[in-house]
């Protein structure tokens, strides 16, 4: 079982603090829990938190040394962080442990010196303050999350869910991650480079949402979909489709289609023994060369290497996967 230590740095953001347990705690692989999530802090006991809630953390930082992944969640303590927390993070980084932050937890990682010379992000409203304090960090304020080696950082609040789903996908594959996303009623795994905020974060007025068109497209990823075809289904112009698509998803129609096709290819590689040309065809990537190129670009693995990395799950034998 993958061991996860979540460090609460008071005053802790309670929503952020709940995310790792909520997402990673729903991960089940072959009937067994995929993660053991434990919350710790420098001084166990009641800790200050936002929102008027009383939070008690019973574990100390000794659990950090036992963790495969360490996550620092959002905090209002953006200066003078407890030296014990910084020291624990430095030791974990030196040991090669994967370390992540949610929201303003990036300030803690930067204070520990773990982000110097690395790409990172944080909550967009705190980006200017972060950039002024840590000029040696390659801050990318407009994205959901950034992975640079064994260090990952995410934007605020719900972007922490995206980060945790990305961790699940990295550890157990796209199929497991998307199952967890459904369980926590979250969007499927989104690319880290997607914008932190979109023009219209809530569903638009009745009759103008492209949700039905996106659902229609997901059923037809193996077909040669175009912006014109999507526009016909949505009963709108290509120009309006592109504008509204970006407003609702943060991506252009073709970017969204490519992302969904790569995810479909990952699921097929994990769950079937289909040959590569069929995986490419069923996912809409068409050719094995295209499948290889996009998968290497997205996850750094060839299709064969990706399949070999996720053989821990039971396979669906050839012919059992739906043809759509």
Structure description:
This protein is an alpha/beta fold and 324 residues long. The chain folds into 2 domains: 182 residues, 3-Layer(aba) Sandwich (Rossmann fold); 123 residues, Homeodomain-like (Arc Repressor Mutant, subunit A), CATH 1.10.10.60. Helices cover 42% and strands 13% of the residues. The protein has 13 helices and 12 strands. The strands form 4 sheets. Strands 4-1-7-8-12-11 form a 6-stranded mixed sheet, with helices on both faces. It has a two-stranded antiparallel sheet with strand order 2-3. It has a two-stranded antiparallel sheet with strand order 5-6. Strand 5 and strand 6 form a beta hairpin. Helix 1 packs parallel to helix 5, helix 8 packs across helix 9 and helix 10 runs antiparallel to helix 11. The protein is globular.
A few lines on this structure:
By secondary structure, the chain is α/β, with parallel strands linked by helices.
What percentage of amino acids are in beta strands? 5-15%
CATH class of the largest domain reads Alpha Beta
Through-space gap between termini: 34 Å
Q: What is the domain total for the residues?
A: 2
Portion of residues within helices: 40-55%
Features:
single chain, 324 residues, alpha/beta, Rossmann fold, Arc Repressor Mutant, subunit A, 2 domains, 6-stranded mixed β-sheet, two-stranded antiparallel ribbon, 13 helices, 12 strands, 13% strand, globular, disordered C terminus
Topology (SSEs and partners):
Blueprint: E1 2-7, H1 14-24, E2 28-29, E3 32-33, E4 35-40, E5 45-47, E6 55-57, E7 69-72, H2 83-94, E8 98-101, H3 105-111, E9 119-120, H4 127-133, E10 138-139, E11 145-148, E12 151-154, H5 158-172, H6 174-183, H7 211-218, H8 227-234, H9 238-249, H10 253-271, H11 276-283, H12 288-299, H13 303-309
Parallel strand pairs: 1-4, 1-7, 7-8, 8-12, 9-10
Antiparallel strand pairs: 2-3, 5-6, 11-12
């Amino acid at each position: 079982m993958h061991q996860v230590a979540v460090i609460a740095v008071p005053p802790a953001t309670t929503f952020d603090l709940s995310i790792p347990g909520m997402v990673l705690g729903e991960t089940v692989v072959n009937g067994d829990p995929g993660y053991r999530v434990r919350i710790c802090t420098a001084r166990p006991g009641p800790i200050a938190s936002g929102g008027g809630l009383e939070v008690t953390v019973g574990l100390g930082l000794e659990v950090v040394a036992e963790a495969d992944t360490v996550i620092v969640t959002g905090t209002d303590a953006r200066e003078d962080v407890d030296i014990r927390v910084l020291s624990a993070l430095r030791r974990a980084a030196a040991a090669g442990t994967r370390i992540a932050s949610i929201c303003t937890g990036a300030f803690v990682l930067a204070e520990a010196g773990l982000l110097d010379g690395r790409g990172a992000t944080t909550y967009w409203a705190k980006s200017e303050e972060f950039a002024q304090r840590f000029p040696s960090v390659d801050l990318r304020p407009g994205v959901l999350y950034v992975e640079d080696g064994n260090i990952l950082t995410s934007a605020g609040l719900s972007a922490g869910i995206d980060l945790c789903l990305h961790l699940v996908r990295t550890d157990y594959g796209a199929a497991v991650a998307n199952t967890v996303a459904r369980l926590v009623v979250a969007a499927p795994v989104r690319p880290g480079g997607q914008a932190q905020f979109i023009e219209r974060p809530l569903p638009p007025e009745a009759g103008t949402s492209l949700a039905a068109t996106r659902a229609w497209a997901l059923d037809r990823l193996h077909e040669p979909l175009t912006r014109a075809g999507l526009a016909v289904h949505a009963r709108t112009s290509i120009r309006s489709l592109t504008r509204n698509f970006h407003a609702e998803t943060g991506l252009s129609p073709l970017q969204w289609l490519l992302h969904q096709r790569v995810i479909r290819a990952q699921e097929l590689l994990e769950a079937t023994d289909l040959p590569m040309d069929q995986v490419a065809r069923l996912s809409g990537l068409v050719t094995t060369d295209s499948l290889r190129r996009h998968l290497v670009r997205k996850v750094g693995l060839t299709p064969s290497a990706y399949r070999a990395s996720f053989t821990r799950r039971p396979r669906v034998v050839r012919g059992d996967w739906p043809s759509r």
